[in-house]
Specification:
- About 35% of the residues lie in helices and about 15% in strands.
- It has 16 helices and 15 strands.
- Strand 7, helix 6 and strand 8 form a beta-alpha-beta unit.
- It is elongated.
């Protein structure tokens, strides 16, 4: 691109960030489509600026096409003509300008999520509705009422009706003919599940519901002949169904059950398939997010459009939300024949998608320029760093580092010490898990991140 056609961008910053910003923009120049200038305003920390203050202090050159302000600057952007906010962290500038953005159509999906309320008969109606509301907010399309074997739930009809009145689509998870009949009478639309043991009940259910679906399963997971007989009978009765090959836990036939799902898809290429993902997430010692993404990818490739999950065990307590995000990711990957990467950062929970490093030179440069007493804390390359206008300490042990700090700063009060201890704890967690640490901001935990309210000004 000729220089005459290149966009000219003015980057606004404060005194401390000038050298880091200039270094970053210089690194970007060989591949950038813009030329840059930097306006260093008379303030130490750029994030403390407001757009009103910037408007009164900024002298913008006439040949500038656009102005980029620090992402944390507060105020109305209209006060600074041609201005927009950049990333909160200047180390994100390469992605801000060069990375492929999320596609406009990203977010589409075609997998329905059935969220099971386990042991529903043991819960009060209000408990059931509360759990259902949580599932709906997490992305569930159906509420599945899990019943208890060996007893008949007399309150199922009232519960189903109450859920439907709240706008939920309901499935009933039971082999008890009376429970299913009551649920269908109240408006349930799906029955989990049907095999040879209760197949004879299906015609009777039509007397209580004009339209419903069933989930067809084999009598035992590996008995596909029994599944075929059930399907043939449902076809003869013109009953709508989805086929569930029954996903088995790891160690008890997991791989074989995946193979059966593939076999069933080959045998019934146009059938609607269904898969109970909770059999793996609930019964595997592992965080559920990654497992849910992989199983959602398997379902997407195989054309399985309904999945059943639950959130009973603690490590799976956000499975519905994970599946809601995962189904968008895998839909995009399969439809566009691309890898599911750098599209859904909310599913990267334990670590961060990318580590940002200031580097040795940048931290030493910052330590030389800082003149006030306020401490800046950094965590990178296996060490904690803490500095202000007179101190720069580093180390791997927060207790040892704090002892050194107390020896050098005789004005460290209780409030200040508590603040530093809290920030050190976050910083050590970041180092342990290879996460980015940024002072006064919460660590990033994907969709589980809780924004942090800064107390720095009241503690320092």
């Amino acid at each position: 691109m000729s220089n005459a056609c290149r966009e000219r961008i003015l980057f606004v910053t404060g005194k401390l960030a000038e050298s880091s910003l200039r270094r970053m923009l210089t690194q970007l120049q060989p591949t950038a489509t813009f030329d840059f200038e930097i306006a260093v305003l008379p303030i130490t920390v750029a994030s403390l600026m407001t757009t009103k203050w910037i408007a009164s202090h900024l002298n913008c050159p006439q040949d500038i096409d656009r102005i980029i302000l620090p992402g944390l600057v507060k105020g109305d952007l209209e006060l600074v003509p041609n201005a927009s906010r950049g990333p909160n962290d200047l180390r994100d500038l390469p992605e801000f300008f060069g990375q492929k953005s999320v596609p406009i159509d990203y977010g589409k999906h075609d997998i329905e999520i059935f969220a099971e309320i386990n042991h529903a008969p043991r819960l009060t109606l209000q408990n059931v509705i509360s759990i259902a509301e949580h599932y709906r907010a997490s992305g569930a399309d159906w509420i599945d009422l899990g019943c208890d074997p060996g007893s008949t739930w007399l309150g199922v009809e009232d519960t189903v009706r109450a859920l439907i009145n709240q706008g939920f689509r309901v499935s009933i998870d039971s082999f008890d003919p009376m429970e299913v009949t009551s649920a269908l009478t109240a408006g349930a639309e799906m029955v989990l599940s049907v095999n040879s043991t209760n197949l004879s009940q299906v015609p009777r259910w039509r007397d209580h519901s004009s339209q419903f679906e069933v989930i067809a399963i084999p009598d035992t997971p590996d008995d596909l002949h029994s599944l075929e007989r059930t399907i043939q009978q449902l076809d003869a009765w013109s009953v709508s169904y989805r086929i569930d090959p029954i996903l088995e836990p790891i160690g008890l036939g997991f791989a074989a059950s995946l193979g059966r799902a593939i076999e069933i898809r080959r045998k019934y290429p146009d059938a609607e398939l269904f898969l109970g993902i909770g059999n793996v997430t609930e019964l595997t010692d592992g965080d559920s997010a990654g497992i849910n993404v992989v199983l959602a990818g398997f379902c997407q490739e195989l054309g399985i459009r309904g999945v059943l999950t639950t959130e009973v065990i603690n490590w799976s307590r956000s499975s519905v939300r994970e599946l809601s995000l995962a189904r968008r990711l895998v839909y995009h990957a399969v439809r566009n024949k691309t890898v599911p990467k750098r599209l859904e950062p909310d599913l990267v929970l334990l670590r961060d998608p990318k580590l940002h490093i200031h580097g040795e030179d940048a931290l030493r440069d910052l330590a030389e320029k800082v003149t006030d007493r306020n401490y800046r804390i950094f965590a990178e390359r296996g060490e904690l760093h803490i500095l202000n206008g007179s101190i720069y300490l580093r180390g791997t042990d927060p207790f040892e580092l704090f002892d050194r700090l107390m020896n050098e700063d005789d004005r460290l009060d209780i409030s200040h010490a508590f603040y530093l201890g809290y920030e050190f704890a976050k910083a050590v967690t970041a180092l342990t898990l290879s996460k980015n640490y940024e002072q006064d901001r919460s660590l990033r935990w994907g969709f589980l991140t809780v924004p942090e309210v800064s107390h720095r000004n009241t503690r320092l």
